[in-house]
Structure formats: structure tokens, C-alpha cells
Specification:
heterodimer; A: 574 residues; alpha+beta; Cytochrome-c3 Hydrogenase, chain B; 16 helices; B: alpha/beta; Rossmann fold; Cytochrome-c3 Hydrogenase, Chain A, domain 2; five-stranded parallel beta sheet; 15 helices
Chain lengths: 574, 374
């Protein structure tokens, strides 16, 4: 039997990340990214019912909640040759879209905005000017002088209480903050509005999946039966609710998120030249009414871009064992065949072997293994995955939807296409794809209504739900685009049980340690040459790390040019 | 004396006076604070006033082995809305998910709260603590999660264990629990640990626990295993709107069948509602929109201890030990269903007989709890 174990999906998606950076002449000379939390979920999955896997792996991440469950049912369905009814594909797509809308907005306002928006400075804004500015960039109704005055007073009172809560010890007043007070006030007002808004859009998942976070999925379809004439099923009221939520979500994205993104970006154009990183991008593609097996109809196309060359998009095949491989040269694992081997996930193994310093420690020894993350490679190349990769691949392939939003943004900001390869480009790409997804969601909704109207009310294919109908052995792969990038789950099934389950997740591509050849992964590469005004207040590092939307809580160590320890900064993701 | 003197504990002025500073020194300090915060002179008077008066409840929120679904659920709360909670009721001084500061500055903020509000802050923990391999499976800032927990717990007024990870270990503690993921109450001694299990708990339940403390100035009443009675004293089964179908012996036989479209009971496709204590059937999720059973999937008992090892998802509850009286219903159901309409009627009668037993048990329970109340 193949040796399995190890690989913690948790560290890859939601755990604790640490970055150590060397600074020389006010710039980052080198950086090391380390995942420092592990749950060994793959070991726990061994021997369990493949139909249950979605629930276990759903718990990999509660932020991009549902994305692992979706990918898991896809991989089991792939292994067992189960074809999912069209309604279930559409419902899964609606839940996917709701996740993107939620996740990207929350990332922008609650996880990333305070890297760009100076909250304390917002107290100096003139509410009248703020109102004029807000009305000049959007027709969002909450934009009166009174509205901004109220927000400002509320925050003033909060600050004056002396208990700064979540705003305590922020980098307020740092010279890298460039926004006028009025833009800061708009950002702050929308931070609070988005906090209120985000609890609404997730209700799409609640209606179909029963709860959020962690809605329910089902191998073979979805559990929410369509029953147009029963109060317990998906009926006209439920569907109208979904439609209302999607429209409301789209309004917020178009009238608040995108105008704010553009307004803020216009003051940080220099960040269009910082944080570019690898220049290699990969997407597996996703979002089709026909499910994940029909790449030709993907709204997010698949492909690979190498060396920022947009003239050529390479094909990617996740099943080929010479394309996707995971390395552990600098990871706290061992392979049976040796530390330098690369393994395809279907043959994946990983015996945990922590060789780092004994805690409490001040710094990692990066001359040896320094992370709980493995290092995945595509044909030996390091890849960036995520919104920027998806948008660039759509753009390079000439897909009209992507051409339109990207060209419009570039011309609005008056920056060249090369500005896309940057921290700013990554943050902007997230907004642009969110706008597309909000539109696509309504299309999927219409398709669902059409289907039901035609009399198709099937929601699950249970022909092969019973394990007695399965072959003795089967293997499958599920792929998709999580909000943070290309995601694949691999399963081997033997005698109705999970024999091996491996996840290769976006954060592993982006945040992994360097490989045996010394090639950096995306985070480490993107941090190179980033200017750091004051190593004690490493705002700039956090900007670039956050632009990836890390699904980890992180910790950044910084060194001055003499290699002395200067300060520790945890970058707190989600 | 109130349980939480924090709201009446020494103000900045009182403490300054106690330490021998004059009122004049205090005014200077306030002016400096005002300048630091970028306030105009007119704002300084308000700073002075605020520092002389009321405090919001200080809260430190830690993350260990978890997926952040608890924090995500918390911000889904609709009443109170989290913005209101954060701005008006509590001072969330450390939260990896929401705070502006990072690392060194974040840790400073936590240290400050631990010293300044010693014995007065609420410690919230999201996630389990891995004790295998000397704790290296979860390290933050070069320290193990166990070291961090011990430091933060020492002077906490009370501890809230958010979600199943902190309450019972959740998914990483499922067999074989390779990292020895351990829930909080097993590691912290001599402190009240309020368990709020669920994967995640309902957002309004989480906010509700905090609001209970702030509003009533005391901890919520807990059951014998440490869960707030307000939200965990009823089985999902007993509060389920599909319960009448269970009692009548009408079940979904497989997903998306005709019975599923009629909203029949999900017991036979694995619903663990009969052995799960949670508020889902009453409060529902995301401001009452739905809950798993309403959306056609059985409850899989995410708020129960060891639920990952307590039977497979689609396995009938009666098939594993410890299910008790409900096993009878299943046997009757299996014999009856799919045979004849007559048999179904017999089953319904049998179910009703069994229900009588259940009702009499409930009556006994009721009498016992009346006694307890007295």
C-alpha cells in the first residue's frame, strides 16, 4: 500500500503564515514564507466514506467556505463517473458566485483596506467635500453630508473613548498612506457598510445549503429538492429571495466596491510597479452551466502564462504526473523516495518531520526546511494563482468580458498593461472579476428558472449513491477556481473507502517555501525589491502579502541589512 | 458586586490619581493623547471625559488550529450587528481577523490589555491546541499555541471556547487525531470555560453569548458540560418543523425522491437531529433564513462531541450505539415502508405508540427540571 499521511490542507489554506524578509537600503533583498500550523486532515480522511469527504475538507477553510466541499464532491463524482443534473450544477454555480461576491468584498474592505486607508486621518475630512466626492464617483444613495457627518462623529466618539479596539496600534500617519482625508472617510464609511452587507449575500448559500459558513453539499447533486408547490422545497419564494440577494449584491459591487477600488487605486499608481513577483500565472478554470468537465464552456478559462508573456497561453492538465508535482525539499516532511523527489498528488505522501527550532524561537533556520507547506510546481515552474492569474489568462485569451473590464480599468487609471503585474494589479483584478461574477450569477439564475419552467426539477443523481454500486478501485480529481486560485482535490477509493486524499490548494502555490533549485514561490518573489520606509512599521510588506488574500494568519520577521532582528509583524489574514 | 466590575473598575483618572499623578498631569496626558489621535483642541475635553468614565468590555480573541469559520459566523450576526457590537459594547483589543495592527504592534495591543485589564478581560478562543510534538504543530510568533493560551488565560475573567474546535477538538481531533488536537477546557484549569460548540456556531448565538455578558453583567447559565442553556438545551429533533413526519413514519428514502420534495423527515438519510443539542431548529441560520434540514440535508450533529467519529454522514442514527429509543422507530419503519399502504398505517400506529413513550419520558424530564428549579 502506498504510504499516505501528512500534508496538512489546513496550513495551506487557513493557518499561520510567517514571512521573514531581509531588507537592504530600504528595500527587501530576500524573503522567506513559512506556514506554521498543521492539522493533518488528509491522514484523518483515510479509511472514511468518500461521500463524507466534502464535510471534512469543507472545514479546511471557513473563509472561502464551500469551495473545498464543492471541489470534493467533484473529485468523488469524477472517480465514480457520476453525472450531476443541470439544476444542481446551476445551484452550485450560484453558491460559487455568492462566495466570490462575499469573499472579495470582505477581503477588500475588512482585510486589505486598512493597508491603504488611514482611519484616524478620516476624522479630519470635511463631510461636505466627502459627499461631493462620493457623488461624483458613484450613484450609491448613502452619500449625503449628513451621512458622512454621522459616520465621522461615531468614529470620533469611538476614538475619544480611549479604547481603540480593532483600530489600536494601526500604522496611522505612516507616510505610505496617500489618500486625502475625504477618501479615507469614504473608505471607512464603506468598511462599516460592507460589514453589514456581507451578512446578506451569503444567504444565497443558506437557502441552498442550509447554513453559512459551511453549507451542505451532496455527492451526485444538491440536497435541496426543487418543489415548486411545497413549502419545504426550493419554490418561488426561495428563488425570489435568491434573486433579490444577487441583485442587491451586484448593486453594492458596482456602486460601492468598484468605484472605491478605482478611487483608491488612482492615489497608489506607484504600486502598479511594486510586488509583481513571478510573472508565471496558472488557472484551472471554472464556472460553466455544464459543470467542471467541460473546459470549453468555462467562464473563467484555464491555462498557464509564463514570464509575463501574454501572447501565449499554455494548456494545463492536472492529471498528468509530469505536470503537477509537489516537492518537500524545504518543508517539514519526508518522502519515502527521498527529500528531493517530486510526487504527483495521486501518488502523494508526506510523513511529517518537524526539524525547525524549538519554540519559543526568534527566527527560523532557512538553510534547511522551514515550512509546513509543500512546494507545488507546474512542469517545474513556480506559479502564481488567484484573481490576477484568472484575469490575465482571460485577457490573454482575448475573452471579451475580460478585455472589456481590464481595458476600461487601465484607461480609467491611465496606466499601461504592464501595471497589471503588481500588488495594485492583483488587488484590482480581484475587483474586476468580482464585477463579472456578479453579472454571471444573474445569468445562472435565469438558466435555473428556465430549466424549472421546462419541467426539469431534478436536483440529485443518486444512481451511484450506494457504495455497493462502485468499482473496487477508483481514482478521481476535482478542480476549480477557489477565490484565492487554482484548487485541485485528488482521491483514491478502494473498497468503498478513501485510500488516499490529497489537496493542492491556492495558498500552497503562492505561499510555499522555495524548491530544491532555489526557485522562490509567489509570496517570496513578490516581496523582492519592495520599498520599506520604516522596518519597525512594515506597512508595505503587508500590502503585498494581503494583495494575495492569504488564507492564513501570518507572521513576518524583518531583518536590517546587518541581519539583526528588528521586529516581528504578524500579518493577519483571515 | 457585579460579575464584571470592568465597567466600574478604576478609570484612567482614578488610576492616575492612585499612582500619585495630579489632575493637572492627567489633563496633560489627555492633551497628548488627543494630539496623538489627531484631534482638534475641542476634542480633548471629550477624551478627558471618556477616560474619566465608562469602559467597553475588553476582549482578546485568539486563533489556533481552526478554519476561521467561527469569526466568519460571528460577523454574520444580524442582531446585534457586529459593527454595533464592536463600536458600542465591547473593545475587541486583539483579533487576528479584524484588527488593523499586525504582529509586533498587535502583540503590544494584547499585552497592553492583559496588563491594563488584568482579571477583567474576556478571552475568546477559536481553535484547538495541538499538544503532540511539544506543540510545534501550531506556532504563532515563534511560540506554541499552548504557551500563548496559558499566558492569555492566566488573568482572564472568563474564557469563551468558540465552536467545536475549541469545545471538543472538531475535525482535527477526529480519529486518529494525529496532532493531539485538544479542546480548551482540558488545558485551562480554575477558570470558567463557556463552550459554544458548532461548526461554526450560529452567528446570533455567538453575539448572543457576548451580549448576555454585557447586558446582564454576568455569565450565562451553563449546562453540566459548560454550554449556555439558552442555546443548547434542546435537541434539533425536538424543535424540528419536520418532526411530525418522523412521528408519522414518513421519511425521505433517498435524496431528491418524491418524499424529499414533500419535505419528509431526513432521519433515514442520516439526520443526527435526534442526538444533537443546538438552536438551529428554533433560531435557524443567517437571521432565520434556513437551517440544514430545511434545505434538505440532515443535521450531522456538528455541535456534538466527537461528531466526526459518531457514525457516517448518511448512516441512520440507529445504526450506531448510544442512539437509544429512536432505534425502535427505524426498525418499525424498515419493516413497514415499501410494503403496502396497510403496513404504513400499522407503522404510523406503532410510531404513535412509541411517541407516547417519548411524551411520558419528556414529562418525567419536565418534572425533574421543575424540582431542580425549586
Amino acid at each position: 500500500m502506498t504510504k499516505r499521511i501528512v500534508v496538512d490542507p489546513v496550513t495551506r489554506i487557513e493557518g499561520h503564515l510567517r514571512v521573514e524578509a531581509e531588507i537592504e537600503n530600504g528595500k527587501i533583498k530576500d524573503a522567506y514564507s513559512s506556514g506554521t500550523m498543521v492539522r493533518l486532515l488528509e491522514e484523518i480522511l483515510t479509511g472514511r466514506d468518500p461521500r463524507d469527504a466534502w464535510a471534512f475538507v469543507g472545514r479546511v477553510c471557513g473563509v472561502c467556505t464551500s469551495t473545498h466541499s464543492l471541489t470534493s464532491v467533484r473529485c468523488v463524482e469524477d472517480a465514480l463517473g457520476i453525472v450531476v443534473p443541470p439544476n444542481a450544477e446551476l445551484v452550485r454555480n450560484l453558491m460559487f458566485c455568492a462566495l466570490y461576491m462575499h469573499d472579495h468584498v470582505v477581503h477588500f474592505y475588512h482585510l486589505h483596506a486598512m493597508d491603504w486607508v488611514d482611519v484616524v486621518n478620516a476624522l479630519k475630512a470635511d463631510p461636505k467635500k466627502t459627499s461631493e466626492l462620493a457623488q461624483s464617483i458613484s450613484n450609491w444613495p448613502k452619500s449625503s453630508v449628513g451621512y458622512f457627518t454621522d459616520i465621522q462623529n461615531r468614529i470620533k466618539k469611538f476614538v475619544e473613548s480611549g479604547q481603540l479596539g480593532i483600530f489600536a496600534n494601526g500604522y496611522w500617519g505612516h507616510p505610505a498612506y496617500k489618500l486625502p482625508a475625504e477618501v479615507n472617510l469614504i473608505g471607512l464609511a464603506h468598511y462599516l457598510e460592507a460589514l453589514d452587507w456581507q451578512k446578506e449575500i451569503v444567504k444565497v448559500q443558506t437557502i441552498f445549503g442550509g447554513k453559512n459558513p459551511h453549507p451542505n453539499y451532496l455527492v451526485g447533486g444538491m440536497a435541496c429538492a426543487i418543489a415548486t408547490d411545497d413549502v419545504s422545497g426550493i419554490n418561488a419564494e426561495r428563488l425570489a429571495y435568491v434573486h433579490h440577494l444577487l441583485k442587491q449584491g451586484k448593486d453594492f459591487i458596482e456602486q460601492v466596491y468598484i468605484p472605491d477600488l478605482m478611487a483608491i487605486a488612482s492615489f497608489y499608481k506607484d504600486w502598479g510597479g511594486i510586488g509583481g513577483g513571478l510573472g508565471n500565472f496558472m488557472a484551472y478554470g471554472d464556472l460553466s452551466a455544464n459543470g467542471s468537465k467541460d473546459p470549453a464552456t468555462f467562464l473563467f478559462p484555464s491555462g498557464v502564462i509564463l514570464n509575463k508573456d501574454l501572447s501565449k497561453v499554455h494548456e494545463v492538465d492536472v492529471r498528468k504526473n509530469d505536470e503537477i508535482q509537489e516537492f518537500i525539499t524545504n518543508s517539514w516532511y519526508d518522502y519515502e523516495g527521498g527529500k528531493d523527489k517530486g510526487l504527483h498528488p495521486w501518488e502523494g505522501e508526506s510523513k511529517i518531520n518537524y526539524t525547525g527550532p524549538k519554540p519559543p524561537f526568534e527566527q527560523l533556520d532557512v538553510s534547511q526546511a522551514y515550512s509546513f507547506l509543500k512546494t507545488p510546481r507546474w512542469k517545474g515552474h513556480a506559479m502564481e494563482v488567484g484573481p490576477l492569474a484568472r484575469v490575465l489568462i482571460g485577457y490573454a485569451k482575448g475573452v471579451p468580458a475580460f478585455k472589456e473590464v481590464v481595458d476600461a480599468a487601465l484607461s480609467q487609471l491611465q496606466v499601461p498593461a504592464t501595471a497589471l503585474f503588481s500588488t495594485l494589479g492583483r488587488t484590482a483584478a480581484r475587483g474586476l472579476e468580482c464585477k463579472l461574477v456578479a453579472t454571471w450569477a444573474l445569468d445562472f439564475y435565469d438558466q435555473l428558472i428556465d430549466n424549472i419552467k421546462k419541467g426539469d426539477t431534478r436536483m440529485a443523481n443518486t444512481d451511484k449513491f450506494d457504495p455497493s454500486t462502485w468499482p473496487a478501485e477508483a481514482k478521481g480529481v476535482g478542480t476549480g477556481e477557489a477565490p484565492r486560485g487554482a484548487l485541485a482535490h485528488y482521491i483514491n477509493i478502494k473498497d468503498g473507502k478513501i485510500a488516499n486524499y490529497q489537496l493542492v490548494v491556492p495558498t500552497t502555490w503562492n505561499a510555499s517555501p522555495r524548491d530544491g533549485k532555489g526557485q522562490r514561490s509567489a509570496y517570496e518573489a513578490a516581496l523582492l525589491d519592495t520599498p520599506v520606509h520604516d522596518p519597525n512599521l512594515p506597512l508595505e510588506i503587508i500590502r503585498t502579502i494581503h494583495s494575495f488574500d492569504p488564507c492564513l494568519a501570518c507572521s513576518v520577521h524583518i531583518y536590517d541589512e546587518h541581519g539583526n532582528h528588528v521586529s516581528r509583524v504578524s500579518v493577519l489574514g483571515e | 458586586m457585579p460579575f464584571f466590575p470592568s465597567r466600574e473598575m478604576p478609570t484612567y483618572l482614578e488610576e492616575a490619581t492612585r499612582k500619585g499623578y495630579s489632575r493637572r498631569d492627567f489633563a496633560k496626558f489627555c492633551t497628548m493623547m488627543g494630539a496623538f489621535m489627531g484631534l482638534e483642541a475641542s476634542g480633548v475635553a471629550q477624551v478627558t471625559q471618556a477616560l474619566e468614565t465608562k469602559k467597553r468590555l475588553p476582549v482578546i480573541w485568539l486563533h489556533f488550529q481552526e478554519c476561521t469559520c467561527c469569526s466568519e459566523s460571528f460577523i454574520r450576526s444580524s442582531h446585534p450587528m457586529v459593527a454595533d457590537l464592536l463600536l458600542d459594547q465591547i473593545s475587541l483589543d486583539y483579533s487576528e481577523t479584524l484588527m488593523a495592527a499586525s504582529g509586533f504592534q498587535a502583540e503590544e495591543a494584547m499585552k497592553h490589555t492583559m496588563e491594563k485589564h488584568k482579571g477583567e478581560y474576556i478571552l475568546c478562543v477559536e481553535g484547538s491546541v495541538p499538544t503532540a510534538a511539544d506543540g510545534v504543530y501550531c506556532m504563532i510568533g515563534g511560540k506554541t499555541s499552548l504557551q500563548i493560551l496559558e499566558e492569555a488565560a492566566e488573568n482572564a475573567k472568563a474564557i469563551i471556547a468558540w465552536g467545536s474546535c475549541a469545545s471538543n477538538g472538531c475535525v482535527q481531533a477526529a480519529k486518529p487525531n494525529p496532532t493531539s488536537a485538544t479542546p480548551i477546557h482540558k488545558l485551562v484549569k480554575g477558570k470558567t470555560v463557556i463552550k459554544v460548540p458548532g461548526c461554526p456556531p450560529i452567528g446570533e448565538v455567538m453575539a448572543g453569548v457576548i451580549v448576555h455578558v454585557v447586558t446582564f453583567d454576568r455569565l450565562p447559565e451553563l449546562d453540566n458540560i459548560g454550554r449556555p442553556k439558552a442555546f443548547y438545551s434542546k435537541r434539533v429533533h425536538d424543535t424540528c418543523y419536520r418532526r411530525p413526519f418522523y412521528d408519522a413514519g414518513l421519511y425521505v428514502e433517498s435524496f431528491d425522491d418524491q418524499n424529499a420534495k414533500k419535505g419528509y423527515c431526513l432521519y433515514k438519510v442520516g439526520c443526527k437531529g435526534p442526538s444533537t443539542y443546538n438552536a438551529c431548529g428554533v433560531m435557524r441560520w443567517n437571521n432565520g433564513v434556513s437551517f440544514p434540514i430545511q434545505s434538505g440535508h440532515g443535521c450531522f450533529g456538528c455541535s456534538e462531541e466527537n461528531y466526526w467519529d459518531n457514525g457516517r454522514l448518511y448512516e441512520r442514527a440507529s445504526a450506531f450505539p448510544g442512539f437509544g429509543i429512536e432505534a425502535d422507530a427505524d426498525k418499525v419503519g424498515m419493516a413497514a415502508l415499501g410494503v403496502t399502504a396497510g403496513a404504513l398505517a400499522v407503522h404510523a400506529v406503532a410510531t404513535n405508540l412509541r411517541k407516547k413513550k417519548l411524551v411520558s419520558n419528556l414529562e418525567k424530564e419536565g418534572k425533574q427540571s421543575e424540582k431542580d428549579l425549586e
